[in-house]
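Section 3.1 - Work completed
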Amino acid sequence: MGVHTEEAETYKNKGNDAYKAENYEEAISLYGKAVDLCEKDSRDHATYLKNRAAAYLKTKEYDKVVKDCDEALRIVPEDPKALFRRSQALESLERFEEAYRDAKAVLTAEPSNKAIQPVLARLHAVVQERARLSAQTGNKVEQMFKLVFDIAEDKEKRVKAMTNLVVLAKENAGADIMFKSGVVQKIQKLLKVEKNQDIYVNAIRVISQLCKGNIERTKSIIKIVGIPWILEIIDSNIEERVSAAQYCLQVILNTFSGMDTKKDAKPDTKLCEEYKSELDTLLSCLTYSITNRVISGEARDAIMELVMRNCHYSAINWAERFVEIKGLERLLEVCSELEEYKYESAMNITPSSRTIAAACLARIYENMYYDQARESFNNHVDEFVKDKLLTPDLESKVRVTVAITSLLRGPLDVGNYVISKEGILEMILVMAQTEDPLQQRVSCECLIAAASKKDKARSIIDKGVDILKKLYASKDDAVRVRALVGLCKIGSFGGDDASIRPFAEGSTKKLAEACRRFLVNPAKDKDMRKWAAEGLSYLTLDADVKEKLVEDKPALQSLIELAKTGDQSCLYGVVTTLVNLCNAYEKQELMPEMLELAKFAKHHVPEQHELDDADFVNKRLTILAKAGVTSGLVAFAKTESHNSRELIARVFNAICSLQELRGIVVQQGGAKVLIPMALEGTNNGKKQAAQALARIGITINPEVAFPGQRNLEVIRPLVALLHPDCSALENFEALMALCNLAGMNESTRNRILKEGGLAKIEHYLYEDHTMLIRAATQCICNLLQSEDVIKSYEGNNDKCKYLYILCQEEDSDTVMAASGALCILTSVSKICCRKLMDVQPWLETLKCLLANPISEIQYRGTYMLLNIINGDQDIAARIFETEVMEILMALTKLDSPEQNRIKEYAQKCLDAAEKLGVIRKPDESRALDTFAEAENELSDDEQPV
């Protein structure tokens, strides 16, 4: 034990040294080793914990400070240092009453402690003010209660009062007062009789805010109202009410799992384990509600979306439990639901229900990352298919076929597994050849979904193309349009390769024209127009079809109107068509050497159509944007399908590639929906959305493009683009957008720092790429308005010196930004001023700035020089030993009006030097000669050393 005690003391001493050297991370590690080695619950143990808490204070990890101090105070109660450090941390966490309590305890333990007295006075004022505000809040809550819960009161006053309660519930003090005043019971009672939808929806929002981030309050609320009540309020046909209730359920799940409502939030493993029972109960109730026969279709969709959002391993990781309790069978029941089979026991579904169920199946299958889990998934699907086919009636066969179609549109591997089982494809082909329109229709849909890859398409061509042609001759439009889509899909398997054409020349245009007729015909219902859009999604890989469609205003407008409905079942066809029109699909980069090698080996080389050149693509983008495609994309963006979100992001990014179209995207709500898409989805989808946001942030004032909280939310996706895996263009655009955001206010600068943006931005200062260096320097210049960034440049590093060296760059914009950054640093930090004098070519760099042909850079040079010499005789003497004085003298003789500022600051530099007693006035003519020599030196040698 003695050896361990000595070793612990050694680590503590090393930790003290690291702390004094401001290496706080190292100090934390060393103190941690001391804590682990020392005797538990000893005074030494408490000391090491206190020391580590001091280091945590410096790294702003306040929760850890509180935890270490709690433990230290358990061992040594009323320890002044532990109390003081905990008080500081609690104040930073805005737990002012607790901080004040600890500060008072410090004064009680050490009445002569002068350091605590100003802290105590400050905290006393804060606590008093908070008590006053709390009393005011209590009065406000009481007033709002009188208005809201009195049905006889004026409607407008009640609506306004309920809105105020939502605002009050967002503040912890307001939420506490409302909860203690019985707001939950009052709302539960009110919603039984409330007719006004605004009041109803805001009442649900109040419950959401009360639950947000507060586990104890959430548990109490669930105990009061019960989970069935929450499921009851989601049961509605009114979209706003369903969304509010869905959000409320998500907040409850987030509170128990440690996530927040941001899209990329990760759960807290410890919390998930601690509240496993609550989470399991909630998710089980949601799962059983999927097939609830009496709820609305909108509520069913919202419940499936909640399951999809939370079952993934990146969230609560509930997928395997979902499979265990037969959740797959419930989703497949939704997939097999048809309008044609409407009984009293039939489920209410929306046009989007089957699409959402398919996306949910795909999301759950993603979690089946090991063989046993996938086998279990397949077994459950097998059981569902067998159960349905045990009764050999027509309805069962139709329902199974529709469910298989959903599997092919969701977890494709499972769909292919089912359709490859003996007798399934044959059953579908037999159904296609009957005279029953319903069987023809569902079998057609299944064949279309099955032709998902070239090898599958080939097998469908071999077995089913004649059947599809026969079905296309049907008198039933619903059958005809589906057969048409099947033919379109088979006819497009060459992709955008202009050299591959499966059907005879001209067939593609004929098919496109047939799709167009269905699309623009107002007499056709939405379902047929949806299928026509899907047909075009395959045919628009052909550049001739793209050009014809984009010039066809009625067809284009019909496509956009279909998108504006937000119907998830239309999403794939419409958005894929738009992706094709924009050429926003994934393109394989072909290296010239590999191209030549392929030609030599007589391998097939894809050919780009001349109508897919940049000029044609840009023309199509402009037509689409001006036709209002953004509104349609915004309507579709609520989908939970990550693949669909990627397609939407690709179209947005393509439109944003043209500067003149970015304003349209912002006006129509594109920026708002791009932020969540940039935070959650496929890697490519997030990257596409983030690049679109960056392009918007470059062109449009961030205050307009990202108003309110959005200017903080957009920072994370932009910082994520500063990654080696991203292209130089993506890096550059992200840097430019961050530069604009950094110039907005202190909140945006702090968020950039919090997201680790500073280190990533500084990395690009060292790139061998002029545009990246320039953008990074400009971004740093704006970030230096933050005190924290200035402190980092004052630290033990060469950041300041490197900015000074950048002043010798060839690129004038980089020099402008670097000199601007140095002007800020030198005006507030003498440490940075002294650092610049340690740069080996400090004099050459200074001369580059003072004698620069660009007036603005000259001005920045004189301004920076004045900051450096002000009040520092040693540095001033060192500078004025050189020919700098002569250059300054020459600058004071400039007579051009635009150079007045340069002249003024050059004179100020001379006056400051004279005041410090280091100046000697040289001969005036010699000064002019020296300045001329410096200018000639710059012009002779284009790149200063």
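Second construct:
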Amino acid sequence: MSSTTAVNVGGIQFDRNDLLGRGGYGSVYRGKYKGKSIAVKRIMKEKDGRDPIAGNELKFLQQLRHPNIVKLVHFTSDVDFTYLALELCGASLDQVFLSEDDLRKYKGPALPNDFEVFSQLATGLRYIHSQRVIHRDINPTNILISVKHTDQGEEATIKWADFVFAREVSERGTFTMSGVKGTLPWFSPEEMEIMGRDLRIEKTKGSIKSDVFKEGLVFGYILLNGRHIYGENEYDIVVNMKQNNRVNMSEIHQKHLARNLIEKMLTYTPDTRITSEEVVDQLQSIKTKLIEGEKHLHQLCADNCPTHIRDSIKILMQIGVDINAENIFGWNALHILCRYHSSSHFVDAIKLLIELSIDKNAKTNDGSNALHILCRYNSSSHLIDAIKLLIELGIDKAAKNNDGKNALHLLYECHSSPQSFQAIELLIELGVDLNAEDINGSTIPVNVDGIQFARNDFLGSGTYGHVYRGTYKGQSIAVKRILRSGAQNHDNELKILKQLDHPNIVKLVHFTSNADFDYFALELCDASLDQVFLNGKDNPKYKGPALPNNFEVFYQLATGLKYIHSKKLIHRDIKPENILISVKHTDQGEELMIKWADFGLSREVSERGTFTMSGVKGTKIWFSPEVMEIMGRDLQIEKAKGSIKSDVYAEGLVFGYILLKGKHIYGENALEIAKNITKSVNMSEIGIHQKHLARTLIEQMLTSTPEKRITSEEVVNQLGDIKNKLTEEEKNLHRLCADQCRTTDYSILPQWMFDTFVYRSDIRDKIESLIQLGIDINAKDKDGWNALHFLCRNNSSPHLIVAIKLLIELGIDKNAKTNDGSNALHILCEYNSSQHLIDAIKLLIELEIDKAAKNNDGKNALQLLCRHNSSPQSFQAIELLIKLGVDLR
């Protein structure tokens, strides 16, 4: 604000240049009071400093408190003016009906329907009259529109304003007039009749009924879109009112539910005119009828009986039904029409509703406009014409719903009919953004023969195509899309996938193609094996449940490959990226399966497992020595033979990769790996212990000569034997952890020496020896107990603490739970009351066991300790757990 135009009086601030309006007794400015935006009404005082005008308005504004009356926020004055700080409103009613090119035109949200506006005005006026006050200057300029922003959107409220001429009235609603006040075209007949007479001599009585007449004029003004019931200009209005000639009343249809009410409000004689209270009552009755009419309109638009729809809708409009009325879901007649209607008159019905001024861009509660609904639900033969019409009539074709989806998103997601494909092409042609992202960042999905996916929901890529996350018949899938050039490979992959049906092979769900691409709908998996060994900060890092123990992974891979070979097929591209992890959620928990994938390079083989090679295929660092040896040679001349044994070699490399936690057996880079494979580096140079039960198996799989290499079937058999051995060794681990007895008498040694040199060495050697075999430190028995559980249940020797440390150091899952939901701390507190209990609890909590965990009965460690033990150690343990923050309740 410039210093010359800024005003600050009693905390009311405004700029004289920021003018909102001007009247006979003052001006209104936009301003602030205590940081809140307000309207400032400034009224000039009389020469002697009195302010009867402002004083009169102030008196009534302080008295009147109602949602439909403008609120007084503050008032103050100086030598020349009185300042009223009033609730700031968006516009006055007359601004609604200005021409679009008028700068003063109301540009806010649409007003409520006509009857809601009438009802708000009527309840406001009834309240004014109930306070024994008459307004006396009712006209559109003194009716304001307040817009509030709520969680449900913008809410417009209608408010009475400007109480300069207001007066108190008697119990009977009358007052002694000292003159006619107000705005001439908005006078009542009785006021017009006495204009110019000296009322001080006659002592004429005025009545609140004149307010009702003016309110009736306002109702007519709204229905006539800004025209006066009695004429087009001030002279005609005065003449016609004196003759009681409502020249424009004929434009309000005889059947309109407001017509009869307005006629009662415009009764010429005040004594027979209805009261403001009766206006409210009649409006309530009308609103009940209108609700039924709105329901009928919606039902009509959902009904496919076409012959009467135009006439029926017009009749409803004639009685005053709100064409834009919405149901509880925010659906108007156009939304419902686009959802349900599919008759030959569908397009005509859309035209009619828009012709009758329905808001074509209105949105439902979920943010959908009519075009969204049409594209989501309607797949009739008239879909194309309806889309064209809506866009031609100016619907917002780029609009998005609350999920950020535009019409194209919805069309792609919900339909696969011939009409929908044409509609997709039409929307793209008409400029709807194909690459628009929804609220989750997803772009328009591709929909080909029921296979749906979004181009930016990308899972991975290979030499021949890309893989996306998608759906088919409601099922989540992986979509492999391959460019159709070189289609013989794709046909081969399709043929092979159709032959394979095994739990350790990714399943083909559906296949289709178009002019450009082949689309494989495949079982959706969670990750590939290489993602398990990525750095923890890497986004593609597998973050699902832990894989089964190594030998279980080997066994699943081996049985899958054995099945592939039994079908006289070779995979030819075995590597961690083509091994997938599938996690299924079952009643028993998460079920994890390892699956072979990507059969793009697969081939049929002979009975002997051989095939004639036409080239070297696959990924170089996972080649067998025989494949690496013939790279670069002209195999079309030599007709070299390939063998399924190369798959076994690559599988052996994968086994080593898993044992080495993501490192290749033969080196750190492609050059080093190729050199070491062709030289067949001795396994002793590899970081897999000599005693490991997989070591001999992997050596047999990595035999450099294919003829001496074991078969995929022999791999499965050997793994079966190994699994049996491991089961026994896991039982030994559990027995070791449950055993308190020692055959050697070390009692002559001091305790610290026993802990340091004897027990630690004894149990470490035994457990480490088992680990070297490849035993799973986390192996569980049928009740879900692992070695740490057994240790905490059965061991109360002086060496319990050393053993707990050792198991956790060797990688046991300290938070693993038994079938009944108990972790090691629960078991320790339920069963162990030895003198080492305190130290064991401290150690487990120090090593970050979940101290707040509960078992399946909802009990934590503290509750189990209180329930099962009463030794001196247990009381100290209870105090310790409470001190460490375990919840006593």
